[in-house]
Request: fold
Amino acid sequence: MGTSHRIEIVVNGQLRVCETAGRTSLADLLRDDLHLTGTHLGCEHGVCGCCTVLFDGEPVRSCIILAAQADGHEVTTIEGVGERWGAAAGVGAEGPACAGAEGPARAGAEGPARAGAGGAAPGAGLSPVQEAFCQAHALQCGYCTPGMVLAVHALLAANPAPARADIDDALGGNICRCTGYVQIREAVELAARQYRSLAEPPDGGR
Amino acid sequence: MAAGDGSRRWASRPARIREDRRFVTGRGRYVADITPPGILHVGLVTSPHAHARIVSIDPAGALELDGVACVLTGAELAKVTEPLRQYLPLPAVQWRPLAVEEARYAGEWVAAVVASSRAVAEDAAELVSVDYQPLDAVLDPEQALGEGAPLVHAALGSNVLAHREFSWGDVAGDFARAGSVSRVRVRWNRSSTVPLETFGVVASWDDDARLLDVWASVQMPQFPEQLARALRLPGNQVRVHFDVDVGGSYGVKRGIKHAVLAGYLSTLLHAPVKLIEDRAENMHGGDFHGPDRIFDVELACTAGGDFTSIRIAVIDDEGAFPGRSPLQLAKPIGAIVGPYRIGSAAYTATAVATNKTGQVAVRGFGQAPTNYAIECAVDAAARTLGMDRLAIRRRNFIAPGEFPYRIPSGTEYDSGDYPAVLDKLTGIAGTPGRPGLQALEQRRDELREAGKLAGIGVATCLEPSGGNAIFENVMNPANDKTTFPEGCRLRVDADGAVTAIVSIASAGQGHETMVATLVAEELGRDPDSIRVIRADSLAGMPSQSPVGSRMTIVLGEAVRGAAAELKRKLRRIGAHNLGVGVDQVCYHDGSVAARSGRSLGWAELADIALRKQHRMPPGEQPGLEVVHVAHTPRSGHLAGPDGSVQIYPCYSFEAHLVLAAVDPETGEVNLDRYLIAHDCGTVINPASVRGMVFGGTAHGIGVALYEQFAFSEDGQPLTQSFMDYLLPSIHEVPQITETGHCTPSPFTTLGQKGAGEAGYMGAPAAVASAVNDALAARDAGPVLSLPIRPADVWLALGGASP
Reply:
């Protein structure tokens, strides 16, 4: 099993002290030891981007970073997104759920958010990026979604008004097999508009 | 998307997908996230040879490692389990989780190691010593058909797993009378859907209860029953949990061998066992590859360009084990003439074994490759006759007034308006000042002036939907299964809250939103008030899983049946309390009203049904709890002796236009514009349908340009990772512009048809058509093999120009 290391990582704002084997990846530490299972493993060789987390604010693939390398660093996983940025959300749906839709999204159009058997009220506890992904239905199976959402947070922290090419560049390392990316691009544009109207861009996890 | 006739209150209208929230927060619950206490992990020992005799297996080295619980070989497993289910009568071919005596492809599982962690299991797997005697392998399906080819299954005496010949109508006469015949040989190379989540399963045997609990990332008909049979357990000792989120499937998540292995190990070790494939295991040895086909197509036409007959012969390389995959040769019989009026057809299908990992069902179940082959022949006919590719399609479309339309192979298409969809497509191609195709042609010419090759591609094709399994009977008359049911339970509690219970797992299709919408329409209750849950395989209803673009159609039928029975009961309760006959009351939006205007509301009806026997009609059961199990519409008949049969009930239609730019120096293809028009009848959720159309189109772009499972001549997989097997990234998928049209199906509850395979049905053909149009401008091509790699383009150009 090789070497063992005692490491300190700030994960989603909380200091975590862990004992880990030298060969353990950051993704395995997050999933198996810290039970943060929102970080998904798709390829385990750094191509698909499912395991994307923010490492000192920058998107990285946690499957090809060793847990021991994260000693002394800050990591944001999908579980930390709602906590960090969720307060900014709940601002309500902004227009159609998607291009080509014939009217406002039903749930959003009902005015004050209301919870039912269909789930929590729109927006509540979500970051504007998460909310935009829901509004635009920028996902299907959800497996790539945590990595996508984190990559978009990093993009908007650096560039609050991304052009289409900026979006494609920022998400070029996150593969989605379900959506064909069309609604993902729509969601990023929606989230960017939302942040600009709030004049409060995300800080990228720093 | 087209919204239908507007009479519905919730269906066809923009609405959120309720599942999305748990996914954007990272709270989806995938099988890898399920870790019962005391869990053990499986590592796999796989064959390094494409074909080899297993001389001996020595587990000693592995067993010495701390944390290793056991090593299991194929011979040991075969003693205590049944072979995995096949659908062809091939007793000489035994498909098992672990190889017995022979390994038949590189990557095949030879032994399993169980340990306290996945890492230890992998370490231990490397310490299992296997002695192999290499045997001759066969990789090419045509060579596999030849005399003296190495045999994948020696006991079978041949590599032919199935061969069927069908002919409907006067094919010979129509070809003899033809003004011209276009012939193409096209190659659809081996690819698959390759979901980002690999297959995984957790199995936990409770010896006290004698019950095996299974959580799996599965999308598979008959999974619980096949698992029980293979493990020699009665069906009621296996409980498959469907409340697991599946991380993508598009047909392939059918890990029956994974589940049998994990299930047996759990019964052996009396501990929960987890088997999660890594990416390499998934790509080499998961038996998840897709169709791998060679088509010869002949299309007979009149001199004026009317199609009169089609002959299709196909060879499909199944890999080493047939499983359910050869049935994918039979489903396209239900759309063998595409959207065209063709009076006769012949179809010859041959399934061949080679030394590769097995195939499984892939999005469309064989339809997308067949559509590609038909569309290549249509483009060839246009070239031969000097006709415009859109014009020849329009000329041969089945006309809107001809539906329901019976094609030569016996299937009736339900409805459609193909010219209208094509009109909408060319409509969205336009730009201000440049109507329709002119805009696309102008852009093409600009690209050409800038030094690129550029071409426009077109495809028009069908998505059969409402999947049943009658193709089992077509390929093997001994399989006389004629129903493929789906069930729904509706429950109303004493305070009126509605719960809909289904018995399926989902891989991103948004079924909870869909079922809530369908129930809402039937009962007139707000979908946001309706809970949808997933019963396990023992508590739930018969289900055949969300395959074959069937859920809105068949679950729609089940929901309607359950709601109708519920409403009948509510009317009986209401009439009794209003003191009138049942035929004197009507149900509307939750109330039961008499003609006098007096009525009982939803809450009161529920209160009576659950709490007040003294107000119930005599003899009426308490409670509001109904189950309806529905057949697939139009099913129930065996195939005729000539294979003629109603395959699926509904036929969605799609039309694609693509503008491709090709770099003549590198052969690289860039898709400059992508347009699609789509008709799946009544749309249930517009965002969901858009997503499926876009996602399927992106998958089709991958098949057309990037994706292939390649092998070396000696059978080693050359595409071992996502560095070699190229899934389209956001850079490869252009902005896709779509529009909808609605031709309702007369055979479904709201007029809906399927959309789960949309986009993928035509994208490979359309992209290939665009590249070949670009090449044709230089008198090069066509390239009739997918994927079209830069090297193929470069070679085509090199062959044509000095």
